[in-house]
Amino acid sequence: MLEPEPPATAVSLPSETPPPPSSDEDFFSSASAASTSSASSPLTPIPSPQPHPQIPISWPQDGTLTLAWVTNLMLAFDWGSKNLPPAELPSVLPVEAFDRLVLTASKMLHKEPNCVRIDSGSGLGPESRVVVVGDVHGQLHDVMFLLKDAGFPSDDRFFVFNGDYVDRGAWGLETFLLLLAWKVFMPSRVFLLRGNHESKYCTSVYGFEKEVLAKYTDRGKHVYRKCLGCFEGLPLASIIGDKVYTAHGGIFRSIPVTPAKRAKGKKNRKIVLNPEVSALSLGSLEELLKARRSVLDPPWEGANLIPGDVLWSDPSMKPGLSPNKDRGIGLLWGPDCTEEFLKTLNLKLIIRSHEGPDAREKRPGLGGMDVGYTIDHVVPSGKLITVFSAPDYPQFQATEDRYRNKGAYIILEPPNFDVPVFRSFEAVTPRPKVNPYYDFEDVIDSDEELDLASMAT
Ligand SMILES: [Mn+2]
């Protein structure tokens, strides 16, 4: 299937257009435009000589990643995305190196608590900045632009990614592995939280599973399985500088100590979101820390509801806490709940992600995602913010349906790390022309609904 989008691409340009910069120049030189203007200048390639990536990539002999190794991995993925068919990815990253990277990262991630804390005890100081990133959805070139634009992770630059690394975009695997490499290289500076798309259910519907099978062919099932195992290890939330809570979806409910037994009939799997709706109340940090996050798909019923809440919930302008009926999992929460959460935990900000321009189109009362972020609730104790970091999302969409949204990321600065600085950016163009890994015309328009029939099987 051809991608129905008109911009010139790396492989077929109008004859009067000068050739695009070579892959490495595109990434390291020309993708440096100001964050609010066009994200690249393909007509004026800067002829600075960049090294070609060293491929195939092998795991370092002593098992220690270096900046040079991570840089070469980025260069190699970028180059490969522009010069090789998808099935040639193993010639860039052989499965042996993939295995070592994912195994090393998984071990680190599994050890992290459900809610990671970034504070003075973990190196946050008067020179530090914390960059918070929202959904990236396999948009490799935009992620690399973001990293360069914000400045790569360093002793003074922390990164918290709010999840949804894969699905929709065509380079979910490269994007996820790139972020894993940064995690392994700087484990105390890079934090990767789980998104709802880091699950078996979402990746089987929205492209990532097919992408992995196309790229690693006969080893594809193995690679996909290892990725799912790694997803299970991802922590759920972060607290930055004791003042900012971040998570993919948002806040979460309190779970009664002895949940009522229900839904005994196994055949008729209808959703029992919570029959005691009036009893819904906000969960505590202790409950979040105790939740069992190692699940392929966060459950929407039963006693282990906190992971599903954290990954799938959405804010609302209507007061109160209620089941998120549109999504079939998670919660909707109002400004009063934002206030209660912030006040109880002595926080100033909630930064969540999870809603792109398509989702926001259907949420009256909440802002559109045109510039990559919205301020959803303003309450006495602070604010609730949504940040979405995938510009021109989704990448595969009929031209007339495109949102042409900017992406954004947030910088938190000293001394208190509680005042958000927003940076919006446009999509990198041109991007390599590829086929989607899901049927974007047939698959439901947003990720709002859990298809329970497919989950039950
Ligand atoms: Mn999401």
Automatic annotation (TrEMBL):
What the entry lists under SUPFAM superfamilies is as follows: Metallo-dependent phosphatases
The cofactor required is: Mn(2+)
Per its record, the protein catalyses:
O-phospho-L-threonyl-[protein] + H2O = L-threonyl-[protein] + phosphate
The answer, when asked if Transmembrane helix is one of the entry's keywords, is no
Residue stretches making up the Serine/threonine specific protein phosphatases domain = 193-198
- On the tree of life, the source organism's domain of life is Eukaryota
* Composition-biased stretches (Low complexity): 28-43
Which SMART domains does this one have? PP2Ac
Give me the stretches of Pro residues compositional bias. 44-54
Q: Mind telling me which GO cellular component terms the entry cites?
A: cytosol; nucleus
* Region: Disordered, residue numbers: 1-58
InterPro entries reported in the protein's UniProt record: Calcineurin-like_PHP (IPR004843), Metallo-depent_PP-like (IPR029052), PPP_phosphatase (IPR051134), Ser/Thr-sp_prot-phosphatase (IPR006186)
Q: Does the keyword Translocase apply?
A: no
**Which Pfam family name is an example for this entry?**
Metallophos
Its Enzyme Commission number?
3.1.3.16
Keywords linked to the UniProt accession:
Hydrolase, Manganese, Metal-binding
Q: Which Gene3D superfamilies match?
A: 3.60.21.10
Recorded GO terms, molecular function? Answer: metal ion binding; protein serine/threonine phosphatase activity
What protein family does this chain belong to?
Belongs to the PPP phosphatase family.
Name this polypeptide is given: Serine/threonine-protein phosphatase
Species for this entry? Nicotiana tabacum (Common tobacco)
Its lineage reads: Eukaryota, Viridiplantae, Streptophyta, Embryophyta, Tracheophyta
